[in-house]
Structure formats: structure tokens, C-alpha cells
Amino acid sequence: MTAPELDSLRLLVLVGELGSIGQAAAVLGLAQPSASKRLSFMERRLGLVLMDRTRRGSALTPDGRAIAGWARRVLTELDGLLDGAQALRTRHEAGLRVAASMTLAEHLLPGWIGELNRANPGLYLGLQVTNSDQVAVLAREGKVDLGFVESPGALPGLVSRKVAGDHLVVVVSGTHPWARARRPLTPAELATTPLVVREQGSGTRKTVDAALREAGVGPVKPLLELGSASAVRNAVLAGAGPAVISALDVTGHDLVVVAVEGVHFGRVLRAVWPAGRRLDGPAAELLALATRKPS
């Protein structure tokens, strides 16, 4: 028995999902007669009737549904193979592999990378933007040459160096009652109010939880969990509720900063790389740019 072609398997899966050869053909950019011929040829190859064709459309037979289920798994595995090959190719092609948490990637890293590229015009740099926990994992496993994180606390298996300082601020929209407050919030008021927050694993979320615990009232009480600083900021602007974000994310946006007494929201932004590994080449150059003192 000769194996069916992958495009024919894709076509069969789509017919099962859409109930129409014509619609499935359109998704794949095929003419309907050509799609029908492909399916008929696959039926002859397999020696099975896969489809019931009627004027109202096409439906898979029981055998067709079984074949389509197996085909879907084959195609999923193929997509995984192709994605993996692309990741390996990117790794081999990149002269420098970097991962950064979102605050650093949005506000600080572009300037450092710009300087690095001007000094190394032919350098290919691969950048992954994710939360601090994932950056640490990528650096620890050697999947990137250099990482940048904003989370507090120890980072086992990694060497770290300060690249910048940052502080978080409580923000609300102009219509929120806190925007008109005449006194600072207390730690308890902040801790008992549901906040728009980043997901678990982000440096901002860890810093907020640590600061509230240090004040004796933590951790944060989530109202919404969102996957990026911009999503949190936009939710606040839309009136969803208060949030604690980097001061770097406030500039240029119609947000009101609310004072809080007795809570320290300062943090250190750090470069990280595997313990025991000596940085050299572009990675060492990027670290030097990131740790350079402003003139």
C-alpha cells in the first residue's frame, strides 16, 4: 500500500471539519475538481470509501473519520518537526541569542542592540521576549547566550549582573476613585483591592508580591491576569481596575500615579548567563553596553 500524500491528508481533515469539498479546497487554494480527484485517488490507494458525497455536501464515512483522526495526528507531528527544524536553524544562524523580560525588551534593550549592531553591522541577533522565569530557564539550559530579567531573588545556576534600576508604581485611570485621593494608600488598602496583574512567573508580579509580603499584607489579589505590560496598561486605561506597573510604562499614557505609604517597589534589572560560562564576543559586548554608566 502506498502512503497518501500529505496535502491529501490535509484535504481530508478539512472536509471532515467543514463538511464540504469545495470549502476545504478553497482553504488549500485548490480547484474543487482537483480536490475531488485527490480524494478519489486516496480512496483507491487505501482501498476504503472515505466520503459520502451528496448534493447537500460531503461527509466522512466511519472509515473516513478514523483515517482523518490519524491524519490529524500525523500533521500535528509534522508541524512540530518543522517548527523544531526552524528553531534549530535560527539557533545556528544567530550570531547572538538573547532572551529578555518584557520591560527590558520594550524600554532598554532596543538602545543596547542598536549600538551593538552599529559596531557589528553583519551580526544576526535572535531575541526572545518572555517573562523573567522563562528567561532564566532559557539561560540556564544554554538556549540563549545572554538573558535579561526583572525578577527579585536568587537565580540558581546563573551568574547575574545589575544593568539598571527600576521602580513600580500604582496606576489607575482618570475616572477611578483613587485618582482623586488626597492621601496615600495604605499597604492594606492596596493588598485587599483586586488588581490587574501580570501572569505568574513575571518579574513585575514577583516584585509586587514580595513588596506586599515585606509590608506584612501580601500577596497581591488578582482581578485580571494578563500576559504583557501593554495589556495591563490598556486594561487600566479602559477602567478595568488599578495595577502596579513599571514607571517606564507610564510615560506618554493617560494614567494617574497613586502614592502608597510603607511599600518599597524598587527593583534591580539584571543580565544573566550560565554559571561557569565566560562571556565573549557579541554577548560580552552587549553586556558591556548594558552595564555602561551613563555619561
Task: Describe the model.
With 295 residues, the chain is an alpha/beta fold. It has 3 domains: 6-92, Arc Repressor Mutant, subunit A, CATH 1.10.10.10; 95-159 and 271-291, Periplasmic binding protein-like II (D-Maltodextrin-Binding Protein, domain 2, 3-Layer(aba) Sandwich), CATH 3.40.190.10; 164-268, D-Maltodextrin-Binding Protein, domain 2, CATH 3.40.190. It is built from 11 helices and 11 strands. It has helices at residues 6-18, 21-28, 32-46, 62-93, 102-107, 109-119, 132-140, 187-192, 203-214, 229-237, 281-291, and strands at residues 51-54, 57-60, 96-100, 125-129, 146-149, 158-172, 195-198, 222-226, 243-246, 256-258, 266-274. The strands form 3 sheets. Strands 3, 4, 5, 6, 9, 10 and 11 form a 7-stranded mixed β-sheet that branches. A hairpin with a 2-residue loop joins strand 1 (51-54) and strand 2. Helix 1 (6-18) packs across helix 2 (21-28) and helix 6 (109-119) crosses helix 11 (281-291). The radius of gyration is 27 Å and the shape is extended. The N and C termini lie far apart (73 Å). The model has no long low-confidence stretch (mean pLDDT 90). Keywords: DNA-binding, Transcription, Transcription regulation. Belongs to the LysR transcriptional regulatory family. Pfam families: HTH_1, LysR_substrate. InterPro entries: LysR_HTH_N, LysR_subst-bd, WH-like_DNA-bd_sf, WH_DNA-bd_sf. This is LysR family transcriptional regulator.
